[in-house]
Structures are given as C-alpha cells and as structure tokens.
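Below is one protein, fold included:
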Amino acid sequence: MTKSIYEIENEITDEFSFFADWQDKYEYIIELGKKLKDFPEDKRTAENMVKGCQSSVWLVTERLNGSIVFKADSDSTIVKGLIALLIRVLSGKSSDEIVNAKLEFIDKIGLRQHLAQTRANGLAAMIKQMKMYAIGYKTKEQLN
C-alpha cells in the first residue's frame, strides 16, 4: 500500500533530524535533487516553467490510475532538491490529497526559516503550481 502524505512527511522529518547543522541539511537537499529522474528535454518550455521562482524550474504532470505524477527539473541544485522533496510528498497522490496537503514538514525541519527570501518565495510558487495542477485535474473529473 502506498504511504500517505502524512507518513512521507514524517519520514522526511525523521531524516532531517539526523543532521546536526544546516550545512549538512543543505547538502542532503542537493543530493535529493541529483536523484530526480531525467526530465524530458522537450518539456523545458516557457509554459512548463513555474512562475515566481528566481531559478528556472520546469514542472509537468500526468495522470496515472487516478493519481497525479509530477516531474520537474531546475537549473539550481538547491531548488532541484526542494522540488524533489515536494515530488516525494505529492507525486502519486489524488487531486484531493494534493489540494488538502498541509506540507507541515517544511516548518518541522526548519526549511522555511533557513531559506533566503527569494528561495522561500520560489518554494511557495512550486507548491502553488502543484496544487493548481491538482485543482485542474479535479475540475476535469467533476466535469466528466
């Protein structure tokens, strides 16, 4: 059975608790970004870019068996790690789960307070875009 958003968030919180300082946490986030699956070159288009990010972030979705699957990439190693965390939590979930996700792990691990304002704004923009995709799929479901 697949894990709930809550369970995945708890795993992330536990993983980050092993690191003594933020330098180690940043390195871990960068490592997570390096593990993102290859992003299709033909999807690196203006319409797939997340608006509101200082770095370039491309985000696409597809619908698989009632779940939304996200793929993303960024030209920034730290941002790539941030989107990798969001994908880990939200990808493979239903529209409702994504829309209603509180994403409390962000504050529990201290991420928001340790990001520069521009990065925090970019994180918020990525979350907003992922939730907007979920709302779009949910609206399509209701119309069909």
